[in-house]
Recover the amino acids of this structure.
């Protein structure tokens, strides 16, 4: 079956701009997670959704970062006033429930110039 | 504090050698999961194994084996008879979940190069 998909695969933007990154989880998966991976490091947790609600957003670095999942399926990670330090790979994962194994998408490579 | 340590930043082995990747974790939680993921050059994280904190049985899957020792908070991963296709970054991870949160904490990764 189809895995987790993320669009776009690459995004180049200028400092100060707004970006949206999209995640399509595996069909039927109720739990969805966003991570950020900087070069040479492991993924860092950002936010976790159970259904439509953000159950844990403790990993969001500041209020420029926001994520939604309005219908409990697709999620969008939104970054306002991007900074060069936001450049990273943004990974999305989904699991069948909060105790299930997380399966990852290919990531969106964000470059802020 | 919760943390995952992978002390080996980079390892190089010659094809067909065995290699062990070390993972040490820290948590005060009694219920947790441990994972290994593989990240090949293409970038996608590939799930390899999940163990829960109550199951210390070692596991073997083909050329892969895992040694979970709660007494030393370690979850080491061994590849037997390594192959070039095993070249990748390997991440050990710890999942903690309670009523109010569910997160996976990744280690920094070990980059494995298998030389033909």
């Amino acid at each position: 079956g189809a895995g987790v998909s993320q669009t776009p695969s690459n995004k180049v933007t200028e400092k100060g701009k707004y970006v949206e990154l999209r995640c399509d989880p595996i069909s039927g998966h109720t739990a969805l997670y966003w991570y950020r991976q900087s070069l040479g490091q492991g993924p860092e947790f950002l936010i976790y959704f159970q259904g439509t609600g953000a159950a844990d957003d403790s990993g969001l670095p500041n209020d420029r970062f926001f994520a939604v999942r309005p219908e409990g399926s697709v999620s969008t990670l939104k970054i306002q006033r991007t900074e060069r330090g936001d450049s990273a790979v943004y990974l999305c994962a989904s699991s069948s429930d909060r105790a299930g194994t997380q399966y990852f998408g290919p990531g969106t490579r964000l470059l802020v110039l | 504090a919760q943390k995952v340590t992978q002390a080996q930043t980079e390892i190089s082995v010659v094809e067909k050698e065995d290699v062990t990747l070390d993972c040490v974790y820290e948590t005060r939680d009694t219920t947790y999961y441990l994972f290994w993921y593989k990240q090949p050059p293409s970038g996608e994280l590939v799930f390899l194994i999940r163990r829960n904190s109550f199951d210390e049985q070692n596991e073997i899957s083909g050329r892969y084996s895992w040694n979970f020792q709660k007494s030393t908070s370690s979850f080491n991963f061994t590849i037997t008879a390594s192959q070039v296709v095993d070249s990748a970054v390997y991440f050990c991870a710890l999942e903690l979940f309670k009523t109010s949160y569910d997160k996976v904490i990744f280690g920094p990764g070990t980059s494995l190069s298998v030389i033909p």
The mean pLDDT of chain A is 93.
